[in-house]
Automatic annotation (TrEMBL):
Subcellular locations according to the entry: Secreted, Extracellular space, Extracellular matrix
Name this protein carries in UniProt: C1q and TNF related 3
One Pfam short name: C1q
Keyword set includes Secreted: yes
InterPro entries attached to this UniProt entry: C1q_dom, Collagen/C1q_domain, Tumour_necrosis_fac-like_dom
Keywords, ordered alphabetically: Extracellular matrix, Secreted
Listed PROSITE patterns: C1Q
Organism whose genome encodes this protein: Erpetoichthys calabaricus
Cellular component terms per the entry's GO annotation: collagen trimer
C1q domain span: 1-77
Highest taxon above the source species: Eukaryota
Secreted is among the record's keywords: yes
Amino acid sequence: MMKHEDVEEVYVYLMHNGNTVITLHSYEVKGKPDTSGNSAVLKLVKDDEVWVRMGTGALHGDHQRFCSFSGFLLFER
């Protein structure tokens, strides 16, 4: 994620079925962007839900794709 320059602090959460798996935090004075990243490997079953929840602050969300979320199937049972 890339924090927007208009805010000082950003919190973003990776969620799995309503539970927080990872918390991303970024702090930098206004006027400066800051980045943060993380990864997780989750054991999922059918109908599980995984999403990114915005906490506080603001992120860049333009055509340059500074913020992204992706998932990959590592193996099937």
